[in-house]
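Proteins fold reproducibly. Next comes a concrete instance:

***
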Amino acid sequence: QVQLVESGGGLVQAGGSLRLSCAASGIIWTVGAMGWYRQAPGKQRELVATVTSGGNTNYADSVKGRFTISRDNAVKTVNLQMNSLKLEDTAVYYCNANLWGPFGSGVNYWGKGTLVTVSS
C-alpha cells in the first residue's frame, strides 16, 4: 500500500523552529514533485513549498526566508525546516507527492497531516 507519512509536528513557541519529514512508502518506481501544504482552522488548504525531482523549489511568499524544503530521492523523503515560526504558521501540515508505480503514472498522493502549533 502506497502512503505518505508525516512526522515532526508539535508545539513550539513563536520564534522557534521545527522540522517536518515525510516518507513515501510502498512499491514506488519514481517520485516526482513533492511538497508541503497547510490548512489553518477555518481556512482553505494552501501551498507552503514544493520541490521538483530535480531540486527546483517554490515557496509561498509568507514563508520565504524562513522555511526550507529539501528532499532525498534515495529514500523518498521530503523535509521542511521551519525557522522563525509565527503564530500564523499554526496549521495542519500535509505532505504531497506525485508518484509512479504499479498503481499508475503521476498519481497524486496526500499524507494524513501533522499538526504544528505555534504559541506566544
The first strand starts at residue 3 and ends at 7. The two ends are 40 Å apart (CA to CA). The chain has a mean pLDDT of 97. The CA atoms of residues 34 and 97 lie 4 Å apart.
